[in-house]
């Protein structure tokens, strides 16, 4: 089994690879700090203490298991997949993709850009930070990465040659289990805030919901529509006022586009429902929630507009039909609602929770926020086929209420 890097060996590693001077200049005073965000890889920030404006890099190591959940074995090949995805995304949407200084295929280590002036978007949402360019950046990132890796752009041969490079069976199986299976049945991995127990019982016995989830699961497993990130939650986005970077695509494979769009939108819904707890004062809460809804609307609109433009300008022959284009975009909207719902359910009643809720210590307040998100999830998934515009998804968020018993 590969040895995990330590603060010391991470710094030594840069020297062994002749990167110290290249990245930091002569005689830097390097220090390494372990980063414990994320579930999967071992991460170190390496920076020069002496530099005027300290430059930092990220050293990222893939071990044959998840560092947070060591029982989850994960092939180290995910490092190759991540690197290849960053290359492809970097070709089509360089502004939103981190720079990689070194990929070491033997040791499954990447040395890459560190974002000192950015915040993990999930944290920004708990602090009511408004990012004026996030909708534009994420709309464009989604449109470009998804369009350029789909059959609408790649030739039939190119696409079929690319798909096997991103067969990612173990990480896909983790998502199949954690997102689409375990949360909807009794399973030892599942956990939830106690006040949600009646809702969980209802979910386990709701075969109509399970039918919808399994339709999504089947689509997830069989619809190789585009090279998707496959874990595009707000912890995979580094952001500040001017810039947005999408990180951590090690789960990537050819799957349904709506999974990326929906996972992101579902996590924005979390940002909306938690503000009762995080925002101080009614007006701050109301205005931040309005910003989140506007961001959801603009992200979709920018995504759709860019996707249509790319299709008009760069789509290959054989797909020119305005009616088919409208159908395709509508299906994407509906898929996004379904996959977004699956993400919301699993983060609240499955295994891998998110700190948006976990950091709410008061159990009743947490259950109120979580059950409001579950109401959105339930309405998104059950009404998918009636949606015709992003405003339909938004009005469900606006009307969502917590679990009745918690209102008393
Ligand atoms: C064992 S990995 C748990 C979760 O963390 C990753 O970020 C994925 O979302 C996965 O489902
Ligand atoms: Mg991740």
The H/E string reads HHEEEHEEEHHHHHHEEEEHHHHHHH
Point out poorly predicted stretches: none
Mean pLDDT: 96
Number of separate strands: 10
Q: Which percent band covers the strand fraction?
A: 5-15%
Main β sheet profile: 5 strands, antiparallel
- Count of helical stretches: 16
Q: Ligands bound here?
A: 5-S-methyl-5-thio-alpha-D-ribofuranose, magnesium ion
Evaluate the radius of gyration.
Answer: 21 Å
Shape descriptor reads: globular
- For the biggest β-sheet, the strand order reads 1-2-3-5-4
Broad structural category: alpha+beta
Gap from first CA to last CA: 53 Å
Q: Fraction of residues in helices? A: 40-55%
Keywords for this entry:
408 residues; alpha+beta; 3-stranded antiparallel β-sheet; 16 helices; 10 strands; 51% helix; binds 5-S-methyl-5-thio-alpha-D-ribofuranose; binds magnesium ion
Question: How would you characterize the overall build of this protein?
Answer:
The protein is α+β, with helices and mostly antiparallel strands and 408 residues long. The chain has 16 helices and ten strands. It has helices at 7-16, 20-24, 78-92, 121-126, 134-147, 156-162, 169-180, 197-204, 207-222, 257-273, 275-278, 282-314, 322-349, 355-358, 363-383, 390-399, and strands spanning 30-35, 42-48, 56-61, 100-104, 109-113, 119-120, 226-228, 237-239, 244-246, 253-255. The strands form three sheets. The chain has a five-stranded antiparallel beta sheet, sandwiched between helices. A three-stranded antiparallel beta sheet has the order 6-8-9. The longest helix has 33 residues, at 282-314. It is globular, with a radius of gyration of 21 Å. The termini are far apart. The mean pLDDT is 96.
């Amino acid at each position: 089994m590969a040895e995990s890097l330590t603060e010391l060996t991470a710094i030594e590693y840069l020297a062994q690879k002749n990167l110290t001077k290249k990245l930091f200049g002569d005689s830097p005073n390097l220090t390494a700090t372990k980063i414990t965000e994320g579930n999967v890889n071992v991460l170190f920030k390496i920076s020069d203490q002496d530099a005027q404006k300290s430059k930092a890099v990220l050293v990222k190591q893939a071990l044959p298991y998840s560092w947070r959940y060591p029982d989850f074995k994960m092939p180290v090949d995910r490092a190759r997949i991540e690197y290849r995805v960053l290359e492809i995304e970097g070709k089509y949407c360089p502004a939103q993709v981190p720079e990689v200084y070194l990929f070491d295929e033997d040791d499954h280590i990447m040395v890459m850009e560190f974002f000192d002036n950015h915040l993990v978007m999930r944290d920004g949402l708990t602090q009511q930070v408004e990012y004026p360019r996030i909708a534009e950046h994420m709309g464009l990132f989604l449109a470009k990465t998804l369009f350029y890796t789909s059959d609408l752009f790649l030739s039939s041969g190119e696409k079929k040659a690319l798909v096997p490079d991103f067969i990612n069976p173990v990480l896909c199986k983790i998502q199949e289990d954690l997102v689409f299976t375990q949360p909807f049945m009794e399973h030892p991995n599942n956990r939830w805030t106690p006040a949600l127990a009646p809702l969980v019982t209802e979910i386990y016995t709701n075969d109509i919901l399970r039918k919808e989830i399994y339709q999504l699961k089947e689509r997830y497993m069989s619809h190789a529509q585009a090279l998707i990130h496959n874990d595009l939650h707000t912890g995979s986005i580094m952001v500040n006022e001017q810039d947005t970077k999408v990180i951590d695509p090690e789960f990537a494979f050819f799957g349904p586009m709506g999974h990326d769009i929906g996972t992101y939108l579902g996590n924005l819904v979390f940002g909306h429902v938690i503000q009762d707890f995080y925002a101080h004062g009614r007006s701050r809460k109301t205005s931040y929630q309005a910003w989140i809804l506007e961001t959801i609307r603009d992200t979709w609109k920018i995504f759709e507009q860019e996707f249509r433009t790319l299709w008009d300008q760069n789509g290959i022959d054989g797909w020119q039909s305005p009616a088919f284009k409208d159908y395709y975009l509508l299906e994407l909207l509906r898929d996004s609602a379904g996959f977004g719902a699956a993400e919301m359910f699993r983060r609240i009643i499955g295994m891998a929770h998110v700190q948006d809720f976990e950091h709410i210590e008061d159990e009743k307040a947490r259950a109120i926020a979580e059950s409001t998100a579950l109401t959105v999830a339930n309405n998104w998934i059950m009404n998918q086929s009636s949606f015709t515009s992003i405003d339909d998804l938004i009005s469900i968020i606006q009307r969502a209420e917590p679990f009745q018993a918690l209102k008393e």
